[in-house]
Design goal:
Length: about 350
């Protein structure tokens, strides 16, 4: 009888440290639920959304210049002074680029809004499907108009959550600075208080955003209690990710080619790793002890009745036994008759 195999050192560490076991189970859930594939799809739609957002920003800037002649004149003067004399009319003439941009602001704005709506709904749809997959949810897909409406509302809700979160952070920081001035603590010795407050408020804003994303964006909403710890883990990790990406951008922007392509590549890398991290945090929330559910037992297949008919060429066991008995009796009778004749 073979002895059972002893657990490995890593398995013993998982048994000893619950946080390590939780981390391994979250990584397994992320891999089994195709986290990298969903992160790549989210990154694609994130980059695709930049073009319509730039168009919207261009239209907004054109409207601001159109309704502010003094500012428009300052922009024209700055451009004509910065370009060679022969190209001044190309930018500032009656048919120049500046005037064409102002005249086409409405068209650019409409196309930008339509493009932003399309790419934004696609981004939100992929994000919601990815989060639902990490929760091991298999909800029934709603009809296309209903799904688009829900994704659009979720996109608007996420935008409002981001605006409110950052607005609260900015207002609280400004209020804290005013308080330090009132109590005469606005010197350099106390600047660390504002830095610490900014970090705390940033973590609080990130925690609220992660909590809202993990709880409300999956197709079937989770509970706040089930995602509170995961949102805190996500808030801290996201701050670390931002600092790492800041160092990365500074390192790649030193060369001329890095100055041109560095911001775009940095945005692409940041979007991909942020998407992966968000999905991993969701998998970490879904694999918590209070959220894990035992896998349902597989349903057995339908019973199939196949009647079997066996055709035997010889007698069965009972018939064979009877024939042997008749043979024995016949043999005994024959021996007896033969004995009588001999006498």
């Amino acid at each position: 009888m073979s002895r059972p195999e002893a657990p490995s050192r890593f398995e013993r560490l998982r048994t000893r440290y619950p946080w390590l076991d939780h981390l391994v189970r979250a990584g397994a859930r992320y891999t089994e639920r195709h986290g990298d594939h969903y992160a790549a799809a989210i990154t694609f739609f994130s980059v695709l959304s930049l073009v319509p957002l730039v168009m919207i920003g261009f239209a907004v800037g054109a409207y601001v210049l159109a309704f502010n002649p003094a500012l428009l004149q300052e922009v024209r003067n700055g451009i004509t002074e910065g370009v060679p004399p022969g190209l001044a009319s190309f930018f500032d003439g009656p048919d120049g680029i500046i005037q064409q941009a102002i005249d086409s602001r409405a068209t650019v704005g409409v196309f930008g809004l339509l493009g932003a709506a399309y790419s934004g709904i696609g981004w939100m749809s992929n994000l919601r499907e990815a989060l639902s997959e990490q929760w091991a949810q298999v909800p029934q897909a709603p009809a296309l108009p209903k799904r688009l409406a829900f994704d659009l509302l979720a996109l608007i809700g996420l935008g409002l959550a981001l605006v409110i979160s950052f607005a609260i952070t900015a207002v609280a920081s400004a209020f804290a600075a005013d308080v330090l001035v009132l109590v005469d603590l606005d010197g350099e010795r106390w600047s660390w208080l504002l830095t610490l407050l900014g970090v705390v408020l940033g973590l609080a804003a990130n925690w609220l955003i992660f909590l809202w994303v993990i709880v409300r964006l999956p197709r079937r909403h989770a509970t706040v209690h089930s995602a509170a710890k995961a949102a805190l883990f996500g808030a801290i990790g996201f701050e670390i990710l931002k600092q790492v990406m800041n160092i990365y951008l500074q390192s790649v922007s030193g060369s001329p080619s890095g100055a041109v392509f560095g911001p775009f590549l940095g945005l692409l890398v940041f979007a991909f790793f942020a998407s992966r991290f968000l999905l991993f945090v969701t998998a970490w929330a879904a694999t918590a002890k209070e959220n894990e559910r035992p896998a349902p037992a597989p349903v057995p297949g339908p019973a199939v009745i196949r009647p079997e008919v066996t055709v035997r060429s010889g007698p069965d066991a009972r018939t064979a036994a009877g024939l042997v008995g008749v043979g024995v009796v016949t043999g005994l009778l024959g021996l007896r008759a033969f004995g009588r004749r001999g006498r």
